[in-house]
Design a protein that fits this description.
The complex is a heterodimer.
Chain A: E1 2-3, H1 4-20, H2 25-47, H3 57-73, E2 79-82, E3 87-92, H4 96-99, H5 114-129, E4 134-141, E5 145-152
Antiparallel strand pairs in A: 2-3, 3-5, 4-5
Chain B: H1 2-15, E1 18-19, H2 21-39, H3 42-68, H4 76-92, E2 96-99, E3 107-112, H5 136-147, E4 150-158, E5 167-176
Antiparallel strand pairs in B: 2-3, 3-5, 4-5
Helix pairs in contact in B: 1-4, 2-3, 3-5
Classes of the chains: A alpha+beta, B alpha+beta.
Subcellular location (chain B): Endoplasmic reticulum; Golgi apparatus, cis-Golgi network
Organism (chain B): Dictyostelium firmibasis
InterPro entries (chain B): Bet3, NO_sig/Golgi_transp_ligand-bd, TRAPP_component
Chain lengths: 154, 186
């Protein structure tokens, strides 16, 4: 293991690097999403080495909420909702990578979605390793609550 | 001196919050791949990684000083030990060794063991001896030392990814910056 702050220092710098090397915000988000996808895909590969194949979609999502989240964020997802038709809503009410952000209250731009996009990619990559293609969107609420919505594509 | 810092490094590492290094290793790998795609020129990738490290170093030093409780080092030899035994241990959980001092005691080699950045990594033949995959570490050392008034130059001299037997960073002290600029000086 390594120190958590070591990763976070690096994470901030990585976001900065991607934002600066992209032509616009949309492009940057796409890159972060792809990076996350790659990492998520590989992480799950290693995490689930000793796990039997999941028979149900819900089991895969639960794995992400518990085991996967614990490995990345040292906590589990706080809330999981589903419509049982392929949509899952994951709530993390203390999203780690927004914890140490400070912002200028007078600033007009309070968008910090670039610090979350990578995670949407992580989820997508993880799901793809379980054999599910999906779209992941997210919404930042209040200070550090993040809601991720997984929509399975059939 | 080395023993004392060995212990301190261990103690501090035990105290800090930790995460699984695989997340870090894989994310770093994905970023390096992205940079190679973006820049094409490998030398530019090396420079970019070093710059990123520098930006990290200038922020990381604060946490380092706060958590380790280390004060001013008496000389560059002590600084080297602190980096190797406390710095590398505290953040990456690994051991590093100082060696190959030059006669003036201004230049040493830092040998890194079990570098987590290069787990699962293999360099394609065309990048060997060109891409300094872990060059971010050089930047971190440079940035952190600059914040404590030491201007250094760090370069990778050996890397296991390029088939060398060890990973070594050469650190050269170029200048000790003065704390304050004298009045009327510009």
């Amino acid at each position: 293991s390594i120190s958590a702050s070591c990763f976070e220092f690096f994470y901030i710098e990585m976001i900065d690097c991607i934002m600066k090397s992209s032509s616009d915000k949309q492009h940057a988000h796409k890159k972060l999403d792809k990076l996350g996808f790659k990492v998520g895909h590989r992480l799950v590969e290693r995490l689930s080495l000793d796990t039997a194949l999941f028979p149900e979609l819900l089991d895969s999502v639960k794995f992400i909420c518990k085991v996967f989240w614990a490995m990345v964020f040292k906590k589990t997802i706080d809330g999981l909702k589903t419509n049982h038709k392929g949509v899952f809503v994951l709530t993390d009410s203390k999203f780690q990578w927004l914890q140490h952000l400070s912002f200028d209250s007078s600033a007009s731009n309070k968008d910090c979605s670039e610090y979350v996009q990578f995670t949407a990619g992580l989820i997508k990559g993880a799901m793809s390793n379980f054999g599910f293609k999906c779209i992941v969107t997210f919404d930042i609420q209040q200070v550090s609550t993040c809601v991720f919505t997984i929509k399975i594509e059939s | 001196m080395s023993k004392k810092y060995d212990k301190l490094g261990n103690d501090v590492f035990n105290k800090v919050e930790k995460i699984n290094s695989e997340l870090f290793t894989l994310t770093y790998g994905a970023l390096v791949t992205q940079l190679i795609k973006d820049y094409e020129d490998i030398e530019q990738v090396n420079i970019k990684l070093e710059q990123m490290g520098y930006n990290i170093g200038i922020r990381l030093i604060e946490e380092f000083l706060a958590k380790s409780g280390i004060g001013r080092c008496s000389d560059f030899i002590e600084t080297a030990e602190v980096i190797a035994k406390v710095g590398f241990k505290m953040f990456l959980g690994i051991n590093a060794h100082v060696g190959d001092w030059d006669a003036d005691r201004k230049e040493f080699h830092l040998t890194i063991e079990d570098n987590p950045l290069i787990d699962f990594v293999e360099l394609p033949e065309q990048y060997k001896h060109k891409l300094y995959y872990s060059n971010i570490l050089c930047g971190v050392i440079r940035g952190a030392l600059e914040m404590v008034q030491m201007k250094v130059k760090c370069t990778f001299v050996k890397c296991t990814l390029s088939d060398d037997t060890t990973s070594e960073i050469k650190v050269v002290l170029e200048e000790v910056l003065s704390d304050m600029i004298p009045v009327g000086y510009d």
